[in-house]
Specification:
The protein has 9 helices and no strands. It is mainly α. It has one domain: AhpD-like (Up-down Bundle). Helix 1 runs antiparallel to helix 4, helix 3 runs antiparallel to helix 4 and helix 5 crosses helix 7. Pfam families: CMD (PF02627).
C-alpha cells in the first residue's frame, strides 16, 4: 500500500502527518473517487516526486482511468489558473476585466462528474494559495450539494499531503 510507504518514510518529527495521512486515507466524508482524486491532484500539486509516485500508485487502484486523468488535469490547470488569477488580483482593479486568454477546456469537459473535478480544483487551489480560485470552486461544489464538512475534508487532504511533501523533501535532502 503506497500511503503506507509514505507513512513509513516519514521522520519521527512528522508523526502528526503520519497519523493524519492514515486517518484521511480511510475517510468516509467523501466518495472513493472524490477522496482518491483529491489525494492524487494534491500529490501532483505538492511538487514532490516521491509523494506523487506513492500516491499515484494507490490512486490508480481506486480510480477509473478517466478519474485518474481528470485529477491530474485539475492539478495542471490549477497550476496555471492559480498563477494567473492571483496575478490579476495583485495587479488590481485595472486588470479585473482583462480577458484571461488562456485555454481551460478541461474545466468544461473533465471526463468525470463536475462536482468531483471542482473539488479537486479547490484542493489544489488551497495548496497553491489562490484565494479567488478556492472561493470560486467552493461556491460551485456547495451549489452542487457538497457540505462544508466534505469541503473541509478535501482541504485537510490538501494540507496533509503538502505537509507530507515538505517532510519528505526535507528528509531526502538531509539524508
Amino acid at each position: 500500500m503506497s500511503v503506507e510507504n509514505l507513512k513509513n518514510s516519514l521522520p519521527e518529527y512528522a508523526k502528526d502527518l503520519k497519523l493524519n495521512l492514515g486517518s484521511l486515507a480511510r475517510s468516509t466524508e467523501l466518495t472513493e473517487q472524490q477522496l482518491w482524486g483529491t489525494f492524487l491532484a494534491c500529490a501532483a500539486a505538492s511538487k514532490s516526486a516521491t509523494v506523487l509516485r506513492e500516491i499515484a500508485e494507490e490512486a490508480a487502484d481506486n480510480l477509473s482511468a478517466e478519474a485518474y486523468n481528470a485529477a491530474l488535469g485539475a492539478a495542471s490547470i490549477m497550476g496555471m489558473n492559480n498563477v494567473a488569477y492571483r496575478a490579476k488580483s495583485f495587479l488590481g482593479d485595472e486588470f479585473a476585466q482583462v480577458r484571461m486568454g488562456l485555454r481551460m477546456n478541461i474545466i468544461g469537459n473533465p471526463g468525470v462528474e463536475k462536482v468531483d473535478f471542482e473539488l479537486w480544483s479547490l484542493a489544489v487551489s488551497t495548496i497553491n494559495g489562490c484565494h479567488d480560485c478556492t472561493a470560486a470552486h467552493d461556491a460551485v461544489v456547495r451549489k452542487e450539494g457538497m457540505t462544508k464538512e466534505q469541503v473541509w475534508e478535501a482541504v485537510k487532504v490538501a494540507a496533509t499531503v503538502q505537509g507530507v511533501a515538505q517532510a519528505i523533501v526535507a528528509s531526502e535532502t538531509l539524508a
